[in-house]
Amino acid sequence: MTVYVDTRPLSAHQTGAIPGSIHVTEADILANQYSLSKDMPIVLYCAKGEKTLPLVEHLRNRGYDVSHLETGYLGWVVEQYANEKENAEKALQIEASIRKKFHKPIFSRFTKGVKTYQLIQPGDKIAVCISGGKDSMLMAKLFQELSRHRQIPFECVFLCMDPGYLPANLSIINTNAAKMGIELHTFQTDIFDQVATIEKSPCYLCARMRRGHLYAEAKRLGCNKIALGHHYDDVIETILMGMLYGAQVQTMLPRLSSTNFADMELIRPMYLVREADILHFARYHDLRFIQCACRFADTCSTTADDGAVHSKRTEIKQLIATLKETNLSVEANIFRSVENINLNTIVSYKKDGKTHHFLDQFNT
Predict the structure, then answer these.
(1) Do 213 and 246 lie in a common domain?
(2) Is the pTM of this model over 0.85?
């Protein structure tokens, strides 16, 4: 973590400074009257960058890792203004594309899912959970667009949990949020540290823990729902994974009540949005998102075009792609299969923890 040190007069520092910077005057540095750590890199700044070079040399001679802002605080302000202006223009472009170019393949499917599964009710306060990936970031923009229509009165909080991201990955999340005009509410946990030594199913445990922390923070903020960015392809892949690897027929529901947090629900408003359209949206706007960024996969900090993480889900994606070569309806058929279950032809099924068998009707 870099420490920024403001060497200007106190009155100037109090008027405006780089966020998080500390104040140490030029005179105090030269008189060695300061409390700075040699364990962290230090960046000195003055008004225009002219007075810090001697101070840098002074501190380097005493073993500090120190540099300075060549343009000073005024240069930093100009750069920030330029970045904010550029980000604002980018956000407007993204919003316009949702209303026009991507209205039919993305926004219409988003609103259809909201209506079909009754995901939003008047008065809801929804924690839109941002992982930093393409799906959740787009979901945030879709919620912003939906709120502008004002057909249903609801509130949103864009909730981002830092479970122990590497600084580079956290920077990607914040940069993308700024470009897309999303104001994040970020909170920290130590989940990555907790699962780092787990050998069996660390990803499953991580996901469960993250879900619990999201529920807890959302409830603390007064929300009654959390929204996750799972999309249509996640649904059909989950169905096949359950059958082929779990020996069960199940799906990823668009809406469910929390079993551990009273009066809280989980919703998936991207339920009908296709992943290919999400990827098209990201590429069209030249946006790069983190993929997982956990300690086990931090070499894959951004999403590769070919989805370079090998997993059971990747195998299922490849299987569906192969089946689609000879049957263009295969994806829709998988999706609809869990809507058209005929219980008269099922050998057995479970409901509320109880198993029901087809022989039950013959033995009564």
Answers:
(1) yes
(2) no
Range of the domain at 29: 3-76
Residue 39 lies in a domain: yes
What is the average pLDDT value for the chain, to the nearest integer? 89
Q: Is residue 169 part of a domain?
A: yes
CATH code (residue 307) = 3.40.50.620
Domain shared by 196 and 110, yes or no: yes
Q: For residue 278, give the nearest of 142, 135, 162, 91 by alpha carbon.
A: 135
| Shared-domain flag, residues 117 and 225 | yes
> With bands split at pLDDT 50, 70 and 90, how would you rate the model's confidence at 292?
low
Strongest mean pLDDT among 148-152, 154-158, 162-166, 286-290: 154-158
